[in-house]
Amino acid sequence: MDNRTDWFVNARYGLFIHYGLYSLLGRGEWVMNREQIPPEEYAKLANHFHAEKFDADQIADLAVAAGMRYVTFTTMHHDGFRLYDTQLSNFKSKRDLTAEIIAACRKRGLRIALYHSLNNWMDKPDSVDALEDKAAYEKFIANTFVRIRELVTKYNPIDTLWYDGWWPFNAEGWRGEEMNAMVRAIQPHILFNGRNGLPGDFGTPEGHVTAPTPWRPWEACITHNNSWCFHAGDHDWKRPGDLVDMLAKVAVGKGNLLFNIGPRGDGSIPEASVKVLTAVGDWLKRGGAEAIFDTEIFTFDLRERGNHRADWSFHGPFTAKANNLYCLVRRWPGSTLTFAGLECRVRSATLLNTQQPVAFTQADGKVTLTGLPEVAPDFICPVIRFECDRPPVLYLTGGLRTPAVPHPHYDPCPSDIAH
Prior knowledge:
With about 425 residues, this protein is α/β, with parallel strands linked by helices. Helix content is about 30%, strand content about 15%. The strands form three sheets. The protein has a seven-stranded parallel β-sheet.
């Protein structure tokens, strides 16, 4: 693995911030496109963008309290409104919000990624002009390169350049190799995502938590509700338990969860986002972190055993590192908890939320814990650590014993069952 990506692979949890002129309207970051707002009309919104409650220190403190290790910030979305002091356009915020967020993150030891859209609906020629006319294309691409060069020169060093808005071109159309080389000449250490048409240094599954096959560094990009930016009508917030489920899924796939929040137009963070991030951060401090950070790939396949080491449980997901197996008990069973299929010996069991040892018996791979509280000892997710005599392996099949002949793990033919 490239040493440049080591920090990213170990980060596990980051904060995505979608903020811009569109936040004033509260109808989505694509509002200019979806409602076909003319550029000259949309540009008038800039006179009302004051970000009076945007507090970079508060945002960085929230990321730290949540247990996050990096922040990705939208310097410019597809609407072309810059949240930094560019010399290339007057369509920008009065304050350099990008400089503020970088400074706040650096002060707290957080890594920083700058999101920047390649597409730009405001400046002319735009991407549609570039598709229709060769001369416009050359000017559009040149403007994009100048804009990116200014960004990575002005904010040096940053840890990641997070491309987006790659419509309508592929890597050749964006001159992606040349683009990345230009940036790396200025910041040799920098990481790229794969949204200028090239694979980049890591994958960015959006809206789902799925590790790439074959494995490579990755982060799942997930919204707190169903909107990337502040949407006045979207109150469908994910709960702390939902985040724990996603953190467990990235932990077993050795990926990251990039969790997005959308500040209101004035820059303030919705209370629901503050509440859930703080709650999950507190859970991590109560023992959850041990089961989430620095874990190993611990997956299973529905058809073949292969080199997979994990299996599923009604109680909740398992994660693993070294000789430790962690059970994140999302569905508490009461005073007794049983699971089977463990192909190693348990030396001790500990309820991490209280650091109390737990009595257990083990026979033929079946582990039974007794004397547990009747009521879940953690309101989000209790975590039990099993210290084993070697790296843990779990294996059961669709039968009541493991066949002594070749067999499918669960599905004898391809299926569309999620796991």
